[in-house]
Amino acid sequence: MSSLLNPATFEFFATYLLAGYVIIIVRSRFVSTQRPATSDVLVEAVIFSLINQLLFRFLLWLAPARWEEVLGTQTLFFTQVLLLPGILGALFGYNLSKGWNEAFWRRLSLPIARPSQRAYDFAFSEDREVGFVIVTFGDGSQVFGLFGEHSLAASDAEHGDIYLERIYDVSEDGQWQETTPPRSALMSLKDMKSIEFLTNEDTDD
After folding, report:
1. Is the pLDDT higher at 77 or at 119?
2. Per-residue b or e along 162-194, where b marks 16 or more CB atoms closer than 10 Å to that residue's CB
3. Using one digit for the tens of pLDDT, what is the confidence trace for 129-143?
4. Residue 113 lies in a domain
């Protein structure tokens, strides 16, 4: 066992596997994804590590200075396996969260996970704008509320729920009025039928 834990082996592991895991971990902060199979994660980490290594060597080629003397061997190593992969992970994560260039990554044979595990997660993603919602349940009852900066939605497999920071009463002519006294609501989505998101045009009407 001790023969496997030597500096040369660790450097190879960090360069061609750990760097890829760093990219995956940072990328996951931007998107909600299904947990892939271990074999897929391993393959993806190796491929990302190779991409990171190519980019690192390209950057060194652009500035042909003796970086080991400028930064030091350890600083250069940590830049290669932590700093640069962190930047790449953030770029890949932002790219996935916006749905850009996914076909390009498929062409690279990366086992990319979709940006959201379910449509519910996509609907309540981090870039969800503040707006009014209509929650309809199976028995036909409805809740009218504001999903704002202090609202929250969770899609746990067994206990999905939504917290609306403000609840409204709607008159027969469609006018929304805040309840008196003001109320918020935490609702289980077990029997939910639909959630409607009102656009700016809808609220103007």
Report:
1. 77
2. bebbbebeeeeeeeeeeeeeeeeeebebeebee
3. 788 989 998 888 889
4. no
Cβ atoms of residues 41 and 24 within 8 Å? yes
pLDDT in tens, 155-201: 665 567 888 999 999 888 878 888 888 899 888 877 888 888 887 65
Q: What is the pTM of this model?
A: 0.50
For residue 203, tell me if it sits in a domain: no
- Give me the mean pLDDT over the 24-53 stretch: 77
Which of the pair, 126 or 21, is modelled with greater confidence?
21
Asked if residue 2 belongs to a domain, the reply is: no
Written as one string, the DSSP assignment of the chain is: -TTTSSHHHHHHHIIIIIHHHHHHHHHTTT-------HHHHHHHHHHHHHHHHHHHHHHHHHS-S-HHHHH-HHHHHHIIIIIHHHHHHHHHHHHHHHT-SHHHHHHTT--PPPS-SSHHHHHT-TTPPPEEEEEEETTS-EEEEEE-TT-EEE--SS--EEEESEEEEE-TT--EEE-SS---EEEE-TTEEEEEE--HHHHH-
**According to the model, what pLDDT value does residue 64 have?**
61
103 and 143 fall within a common domain: no
Range of the domain at 57: 7-108
Amino acid 167: pLDDT: 93
Q: Are 194 and 136 in contact (CB under 8 A)?
A: yes
